[in-house]
From TrEMBL, chains A, B:
<dbReference type="Pfam" id="PF17956">
    <property type="entry name" value="NAPRTase_C"/>
</dbReference>
<dbReference type="InterPro" id="IPR007229">
    <property type="entry name" value="Nic_PRibTrfase-Fam"/>
</dbReference>
<keyword id="KW-0808">Transferase</keyword>
<keyword id="KW-0597">Phosphoprotein</keyword>
<feature type="domain" description="Nicotinate phosphoribosyltransferase C-terminal">
    <location>
        <begin position="426"/>
        <end position="535"/>
    </location>
</feature>
<dbReference type="GO" id="GO:0005829">
    <property type="term" value="C:cytosol"/>
</dbReference>
<dbReference type="GO" id="GO:0016740">
    <property type="term" value="F:transferase activity"/>
</dbReference>
<dbReference type="InterPro" id="IPR006405">
    <property type="entry name" value="Nic_PRibTrfase_pncB"/>
</dbReference>
<keyword id="KW-0662">Pyridine nucleotide biosynthesis</keyword>
<comment type="function">
    <text>Catalyzes the first step in the biosynthesis of NAD from nicotinic acid, the ATP-dependent synthesis of beta-nicotinate D-ribonucleotide from nicotinate and 5-phospho-D-ribose 1-phosphate. Helps prevent cellular oxidative stress via its role in NAD biosynthesis.</text>
</comment>
<comment type="pathway">
    <text>Cofactor biosynthesis; NAD(+) biosynthesis; nicotinate D-ribonucleotide from nicotinate: step 1/1.</text>
</comment>
<keyword id="KW-0436">Ligase</keyword>
<dbReference type="Pfam" id="PF17767">
    <property type="entry name" value="NAPRTase_N"/>
</dbReference>
<dbReference type="GO" id="GO:0034355">
    <property type="term" value="P:NAD+ biosynthetic process via the salvage pathway"/>
</dbReference>
<dbReference type="GO" id="GO:0004516">
    <property type="term" value="F:nicotinate phosphoribosyltransferase activity"/>
</dbReference>
<dbReference type="InterPro" id="IPR040727">
    <property type="entry name" value="NAPRTase_N"/>
</dbReference>
<dbReference type="InterPro" id="IPR013785">
    <property type="entry name" value="Aldolase_TIM"/>
</dbReference>
């Protein structure tokens, strides 16, 4: 780990993600837009909402993320001439040419969005984003908005679960770039795992763009690139704050003999190349010495080399940082490593040796992290790659974007799969808190309804089939969504990664532990107001303004 | 599906992916580069190789992909001043300032790469990419190259499995953008699933950048945005190739009555909004009519509306395309839909109605596609999203990049996990074919060894512990890798997506069916030459030029 970490929070650069081209969408958005345009319906006021149907990973909650990227996308939404020419080449030949002129002038100046702030704890079926504007335009936004929210929220929620599994003390390092879905997948993962509760990333570009603290020292290839002490150059080191070069190889060899003696180890099993690699790294970075110690054998070579070099550094008044373990049984090895550190500390009177950092990185999953947290071990920092960024146990959140209103009339999709049905109408969402400040339930009601009031009882229907009316008296009420984009303008501060991370931590802290359990969490209640429930019933029965049956032809 | 498809193969634009910034890598690449530079080892000639350890998805093969992106990345590799200033801010304060000047001048002009051509069938443990050049530079390339190859090869291999599960006849549409790991994840998925054997993508940007045929017509939101026939405008249609407007609503209503009559259905259960949506879409696109028919009820409304509108189109000499099913039991519904098409064809003497396209899209996985292929059904085109692009059953390939040689001396990592050990030395890779032209085994040997010859027996060791010497006489021999990048220049044509797709098809066709089985495939044999096997043994025993033991201190 590097002691010095980037803290350029304020200067968060415009992300690579802000350049999402509006053509990055499904072709059918354009064919539908044309059909609306052709029927002169493209400017009808319409409302879509974005939500997911199930909390991910079998958990009781999710974190909402991706909002800043959505807002930048909306602000920059415009088709280039090349985009339009491409569309002309793939849309049917009988498409009216005037439609392409229309596309060239499109932007989001008539679009407004209300959204849950990034980093908030959210639940299945609650509309997280409400997008209103001209029918054809808000339809065209669908795929891109889903793409920006889906993975961001998923990997952010995954990170929050790793954080819960790790406990609050252990530091977590994201290192999944090489396993992500290409370059942007990696960048997205670094940003949103940080928001979800990770402390560090290995991804240098994510550090630069998002101000995330970066970490990393060496790979096995560095170690195996050395084969002999002759490759170490320079061979001397100036003591910290002092003067006069010391023959560092000689000093380390002396320490290696003493370390082997007190541990009863054989210097003859120590790999010369590994010792050379550690020596060379320590000479380059005497204040940041943290090698990977399992290139050959931890106990026969790597750990001994580390102790010898680190003790020599201490003798010269430098502070070595620690070690990284990257294979085998991390818990068992970390105990052995700590035991050796303590033995060295005692035998050589080097108190700082007791508290050297041990980093563990070996295909860590949520489950192995949870098990690790239950077992005795001495791992201070855990690095996680593949399972974190690919969200192995559920690689997609399944967000959807559904039409809820056109020209002021509620719309609803009724599906042969009942859980694929949608909730009609423009809505408000409130979070009701109990007397302890824990979120108790989320209430979805029609936007024209009055907000619920603290201390006043209200009646509502839990989401789901055949649920009965219930009464609840909230101790506190908060509105879950805010106006974040109004008529083409961003009206909510674009949160930096660290601001969203702080919101996530606060939001998670307030959630009742029963909902945060990684296995078999208690279901969080989402309810509909009586009026919204009635509207759903009316449309389902076909006697409202949904889609009437054809009574005559 | 649109009849007209993009075919701009030749104009394949520079992909978004070609702009991978070199800072998109792990921080430890820079800390190691500095340590090499500090020890004056940064220009030592070094060789890395890239491979994966297990064939993905429990299968018998993989497809190699991502090469064009790697080559563009290497060609453009250079740090900006901002990159270097960022690195200065995060590397330890005692880093020598001259190192940052060195970084500013770095490029890949001294780097060379040999690689398997994109789209080739490849196997676990075979080095796919060999990267040689100055030690510090080739080390810096690690994470970015892994990121570009890992997911590309994984999703390409996944697509090949979906293709095998679907059989050669059925057309496959990729539609995973909204579920991918952010924007580039979606773009990468579209490109590499096409190479792996998909026919179409829904992703418009992928169509434009890579010349992939695009497809798509309408979503449920289009259907639910209509509630009454009053919203249909214009209400008339000019017959194909003819003149004089026809009252299209009136015409369709007539057909609806006749369709309901021959099928014994009730017009009173037909949704007016759905009929209006189909009417409106058909008026906009009379030659491209392919609606989604499950917004309310396929049999009571969607299918009847489709038949009425499509028969009216036929009457006006247009050719409707077909329908999309997006929920429920796709096989059962497709049989019902085809039965109705045939009935209409017969009753109304409209022969083209028999062969209308049926598209199925409903959370298709490899398994459900394989099951679908075994069951009776009438689905012509299958659309796949989430399971394809997220590679649900194994979301990471686990490619690694390992040092094999420095200054002409072989390097090897020996791990506490034996399968994490690497193969030392610079190598050549040959594919030995049997008399039927099927790949029989891949031979890895040291680069200085002579190539095996067809018809000449050779002795070799299968990869793995305690395998014994075996003899083989190949009928044909091909060299698996080509020089693709030499001293900073791309020396192999950058293949378009369709060229790589063709290679993949040819490469897969030659593979023996036993290796292509989706479940329990026969293992493909990878062997080491006797000389390479001896080198591994020597280094493992510690008596070669690997990393000697410290015999004295």
């Amino acid at each position: 780990m590097n002691r010095k970490m980037a803290t350029c929070e304020g200067s968060e650069a415009r992300s690579v993600l802000s350049r999402v081209p509006p053509l990055l969408t499904d072709l059918y958005q354009f064919t539908m837009a044309y059909a609306y345009w052709r029927a002169d319906r493209h400017n009808e006021p319409a409302v879509f909402e974005l939500f997911f149907r199930d909390n991910p990973f079998g958990g009781g909650f999710s974190l909402f993320a991706g909002l800043s990227d959505c807002l930048l996308f909306l602000q920059n939404f415009a088709f280039s001439d090349d985009d339009v020419e491409y569309l002309r080449s793939v849309l049917p030949a009988d498409t009216d040419a005037a439609f392409f002129s229309y596309l060239k002038e499109l932007d989001c100046s008539a679009v407004s969005v209300s959204a849950v702030p990034e980093g908030s704890v959210v639940f299945a079926r609650v509309p997280l984003l409400e997008v209103s504007g001209p029918l054809a335009v808000v339809q065209l936004l669908e795929t891109s908005l889903l793409c920006l929210v889906n993975y961001a929220s998923l990997v952010c929620s995954n990170a929050a679960r790793f954080r819960l599994a790790a406990g609050p003390r252990r530091r977590l390092l994201e290192m999944g770039l090489r396993r992500a879905q290409g370059p942007d997948g990696g960048l997205t993962a670094s940003r949103y795992t940080y928001i979800g509760g990770f402390d560090l990333t290995s991804n240098a570009l994510a550090g630069r763009l998002f101000g995330i603290p970066v970490a990393g020292t060496m790979a096995h290839s560095y170690v195996t690139s050395f084969s002999s002490l002759e490759e170490v150059w320079p061979q001397t080191l100036v003591p910290c704050g002092g003067a006069g070069s010391v023959d560092f190889i000689c000093l380390v060899k002396g320490w290696l003999g003493r370390v082997c003696q007190i541990l009863g180890s054989k210097t003859s099993l120590v790999r010369e190349g590994e010792l050379a690699a550690f020596l060379s790294y320590a000479i380059a970075y005497p204040q940041n010495f943290l090698p990977v110690i399992d290139s050959y054998s931890v106990s026969c070579s790597g750990l001994l080399c580390f102790c010898a070099v680190a003790l020599a550094l201490c003798e010269l008044q430098y502070q070595p940082l620690g070690v990284r373990l990257d294979s085998g049984d991390l818990c068992r090895q970390s105990l052995e490593v700590r035991r050796v550190f303590k033995e060295c500390s005692k035998q050589f009177s080097v108190p700082q040796f007791e508290s050297l950092i041990i980093v563990g990185t070996n295909s860590i999953s949520e489950q192995s992290l949870a098990e690790l947290s239950k077992k005795e071990n001495e791992i201070d920092v855990v690095g996680v790659g593949t399972h974190l960024v690919t969200c192995t146990s559920q690689p997609s959140l399944g967000c959807v974007y559904k039409l809820t209103e056109v020209r002021g009339r509620p719309r609803m999709k009724m599906s042969e799969d009942p859980e694929k049905s949608t909730l009609p109408g423009r809505k408000s969402v409130y979070r009701l808190l109990d007397a302890d400040g824990h979120p108790q339930m989320d209430l979805i009601c029609l936007s024209e309804e009055a907000a619920p009031e603290a201390g006043v009882s209200l009646t509502c229907f839990p989401l789901g089939l055949n649920k009965t009316l219930q009464t609840v008296t909230p101790a506190q009420v908060t509105s879950l969504r805010l106006d974040v984009f109004t008529c083409g303008q961003i009206t909510f501060p674009l949160n930096s990664a660290s601001e969203s991370r702080e919101r996530a931590q606060i939001s998670l802290q307030s959630l009742h532990p029963l909902h945060k359990r990684l296995q078999e969490p208690q279901d969080y209640t989402v309810v509909l107001s009586e009026r919204l429930h009635s509207l759903v019933s009316d449309i389902t029965k076909g006697n409202s303004k949904g889609s009437n049956f054809l009574l005559s032809n």
